[in-house]
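Notes to self after the Tuesday call (sharing in case useful).
The group wants a holo model before anyone commits to mutagenesis around the pocket. I volunteered. Ligand is zinc ion. Logging inputs and output together so the record is complete.
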Amino acid sequence: MGIQIAPSILSADFANLEAEIGRIHNADLIHVDVMDNHFVPNLTLGLPVVDAILRRTSLPVDCHLMIDDPDRWAPAYAEAGAHSVTFHAEAAKAPVRLAREIRHQGARTGVGLKPATPVEPFEDLLGEIDMLLIMTVEPGFGGQAFLDMCLPKIRRTREMVSRSGLDVWIQVDGGVSKETIERCADAGADVFVAGSAVYGADDAATAVDQLRHLAAAAQQ
Ligand code: DX5
Ligand code: ZN
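Result:
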């Protein structure tokens, strides 16, 4: 799989979601941030809204669950038809069982890591997952500044995945923009979440294309 751009609707107008999704028709994935006000200090949306989004788009929906107790809540997002469901390593009690349940429901499964969570403990789990999400801000809010301290972890993740020979995608999320995406691609990321950089642009679709172009050039 090559470069994929996943605009985050966290920075979209929540009162006009259908139109806002239409602005990113050229995206590879739609990134939907589910926050429960416990795992992160912010509250966004849950399964009913994800259901509604799934009914209004043919683009794959990538759910990023920033919630406590994903073991209980995450499989329902897969069952609803999400293309991928990412839960956080810091919140999951039984990540292997949960990853298997999500796959069993027919979705790809991702594990998210906050900036201070090391990736190395997940090396043996690579066969159980489809994506590692390396957060490049502390999760909870859009529009934060990219944390360069996460770049070595992206690099180590790429090395780990290459060693494994498995096709595990490496997603970056937080502060990804025209200014920072090349650094992420160069370090080895291949799926790029961008909220404010896409929805803050006058022409969101053009912003998606520009980000894809910059990432592709930096990856070589
Ligand atoms: C933050 C979310 C992100 C957020 C990114 O916790 O997980 O997906 O929307 O927003 P930007 O791209 O503005 O940092
Ligand atoms: Zn996210």
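Two things stood out.
Residues 8, 10-11, 31, 33, 64, 137, 139-144, 173-176, 193-197 surround D-xylitol-5-phosphate (ligand 1) (CB under 6 Å).
The CA atoms of residues 13 and 19 lie 9 Å apart.
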